[in-house]
Design a protein that fits this description.
It is a single chain. By secondary structure, the protein is α/β, with parallel strands linked by helices. A three-stranded parallel β-sheet has the order 6-5-7, with helices on both faces. Strands 1-2 form a two-stranded antiparallel ribbon. Strands 3-4 form a two-stranded antiparallel ribbon. A hairpin with a 2-residue loop joins strand 3 and strand 4. The longest helix has 33 residues. 36% of the residues lie in helices and 17% in strands. 18% of the residues are buried.
Length: 242
């Protein structure tokens, strides 16, 4: 590109400003588009997708259950993770409710740790490892682990779904982190929407005001800047990461 004018002098200031403005716009656009593609690639190959895993409790008594016959593959930190359930909605192999004579049953109940997130298959979760050791010694292991459960969810599941299997031993898996809050919030903390768990208004009702960002009754006007920010958060993965 020849920036020299008719008199043979160098480029004019106006043209130089246009050139640098176009170059800066090109660099910024390239950086944003490149960053967006990298973040989306990360989300696709390294972070788990939003998965449809649950349904309403078929007993109609509250809480929720895993969907039966799941066969979902996702990626976590670049690893393939297969999430499977049997026809009864257990993250396990196919089993019969009827107990085999002279075989002692060990039933595991718990949250995502018992479920096995994010082991690449149920066989490699800790319940699967336990099964690989005990199954040779006259034990049958059953896994009822369900992500997001608190103790009240587990109690209901034990009464409705676990006791019919007549287990000889019951192992309750409790994580001393979010399982306290999951229990305190109760079985109404989530609703099922398209196979996913969605927070209900119970979260705001039971969490003390001092721990909330805003009071539930507080009404405010959303300005143009906030609407623009919400638009970018909805459409750009890099903005959500930042």
């Amino acid at each position: 590109m020849n920036f020299r004018n008719e008199q043979g002098a160098g480029p004019s200031k106006g043209r130089m400003w246009i050139f640098w403005a176009i170059l800066a716009l090109f660099c910024v656009t390239t950086a944003v588009v490149g960053s967006e593609l990298l973040v989306r690639a990360y989300r696709r190959f390294y972070a788990p997708r939003k998965l449809s895993l649950v349904r309403e409790n078929p007993h109609g008594t509250g809480s929720y259950r895993l969907l039966p016959n799941l066969a979902v593959t996702t990626r976590v930190e670049g690893r393939k993770v297969r999430l499977r359930t049997n026809s009864l909605g257990m993250p396990w192999r196919e089993v019969s409710v009827t107990k085999t004579p002279n075989v002692r049953r060990v039933a595991f109940v718990g949250d995502s740790f018992a479920f096995g997130l994010w082991a690449d298959s149920w066989e490699r979760g800790f319940v699967g490892v336990f099964d690989s050791i005990l199954s040779r010694r006259g034990f049958e292991v059953l896994n009822f682990g369900t992500p997001g459960y608190g103790l009240d969810d587990m109690e209901l599941q034990i009464r409705e779904d676990v006791l019919p299997f007549q287990p000889d031993y019951l192992v309750l898996v409790f994580y001393d982190g979010n399982d306290f809050s999951d229990t305190w919030l109760g079985m109404g903390k989530y609703r099922v929407w398209k196979g996913r768990l969605v927070n209900t208004s119970l979260m705001k009702e039971k969490v003390p005001v001092g721990y909330r960002a805003k009071k539930p009754s507080e009404k405010r006007t959303v300005g143009p800047a906030e609407r623009i920010g919400k638009f970018f958060r909805s459409h750009l993965a890099i903005v959500r990461i930042l």
